[in-house]
Amino acid sequence: MSCTQIADRDLILDFVKGILVIIMVIYHIMNYFTTASDTTFTYVRFITGSFVFISGYIIAVYYEHRFNIDKHTTSRRLITRGGKLLLLFTFLNIIINITEVGNPNKALGLSRYVHDFVDIYIYGTPYRASFQVLLPISYLLALSPIFLLFSCLYLYAYAVLFLLVFFLALLATPSVNVNLIIIGLIGLSVGMMSNSLKYPFFLTRTWIIVPLIAICVSLMGYLDKYIIAYSMGIIIILKLFYDLGRSSNLQTHLNQLIILLGQYTLVCYIMQIVFLQGLVFLLSRRRWGLGYETISIFLITIIFLSVLSLSIRFLRDRYTFMDKVYRLVFA
Fold this sequence. Notes:
This protein is an all-alpha fold. It is built from 15 helices and 2 strands. The protein has helices at about 10-35, 40, 45-70, 70-100, 110-115, 115-125, 135-150, 155-170, 175-195, 205-225, 225-245, 255-265, 265-285, 290-320, 320-330, and strands at about 5, 10. A two-stranded antiparallel sheet has the order 1-2. Helix 1 runs antiparallel to helix 3, helix 1 packs parallel to helix 13 (about 265-285) and helix 3 (about 45-70) crosses helix 9. The longest helix is centred in the first third of the chain and has 29 residues, at about 70-100. The radius of gyration is 20 Å and the shape is globular.
C-alpha cells in the first residue's frame, strides 16, 4: 500500500484506524446499553482481530526498513513498546480491581485477578480482565523481531511466511491470546509483502467500495468461528477501508476527525471504555433496543473522544513535557 505521508505518517492508515475506533465504540455501546442478540454481535466482532491484524501490518510497514538498517535498536524499540503495553494493561486492571472504577463489571478483586493470572495472560479467557486486546498486541510487538528476520528475503519468501502462519492457524488452541497473535502475524506478513509490491491493486470508486464493505461485514457473521476464514475476512475489510481512504478527500472536516481518532487509537480505546462505564453508572437503567437512545450515546461518545484527542494534540504541540509524557506512556 502506498502512503500519503505527512510528518512520517500514513494518513490513509490513520483513516482506517479511525474507522476501527468508531466501530469499536459501536461494539461497546451494543455491549453495555442494548439488548442486541449474539447474532447481531457477530457482525462487529471482527473489530478485535482487526486491531491486532493492523498492529502487525504497521510493524511491517514502519519497522521493516529500520530493522534492516539496525536490527539491535529496532528490536529493542519493539520489545520496549510491547513491554509498555503489558505494563499498561496490568496497571489498568489492578486499578480497576482495587477501586472498581473504569469497568466495575470486571472488578473481581485483586486476589481473584492474581488467581486468574494464567487464564488472563496465557489463555486470554474472556471476561476475566479489561482491555484484553492489549495483551496479544504486546506479545506481538515483542515477538516481531524474530519474524522481521525474513525481511531480507524476496517476495516469494514472504508468501511462504504468510502460508506458514496460516498453517499455525490450523492448529487448534484454547488460547484466545495465541489465536490473536496468529492474526497479528498474518498482518505482519501481509505488510511485508505489501512493502515489496511495486504496483498494488486499489479500488478507486466509492460507490463500489461501500457496498462491498457492507457485504463483507454481513458475511463476517458466518466467518468468526474459524480463524482462517476470520482472518481472510479481516484482510478484505481492512483493504476496502484503505481503498475508501484513498478514494476520499482526506481534507474534509469529517475525514480529518476520523484521522485524528486513528492517530490516538490507544487513548481512544482505553478512554471510551472508561467513559461508557461512567455513563452506565450514571444512567443505571434497563437496556435499550437499537434506537435513538443508543444513537445519542454513540454521538456523545464520539464527541468526547474527539475533544479528548484534540486536547491531547494541543497539549503535545504546546508543551514539550506533555509530549514526552505521552510518548513515555503510549508510544
